[in-house]
Amino acid sequence: MRTYNIHEAKTQLSRLVDQAAKGEPFIIAKAGKPLVKVTPLDAPEVSQMKRLGFLAGQIRVPDDFDRWGAAEIEQLFDAVP
Fold it and tell me: Is the pTM of this model over 0.85?
């Protein structure tokens, strides 16, 4: 994600807004310190984004999960001449 200082953002605002509307967000900074992030209105909120582990505690993985199909796999490799 690109960062623009305020002066640069003001001079290129129309182009930057068009890019953000197409899904390319950018950051506006003052004296090198990021101040705001410009994103399209239809971009998902952080709370709406799916994260790894969102089902933690809701499903159970069987103890033999890593051994499922072991016999079939062995047969496939034993069948190779």
Answer: no
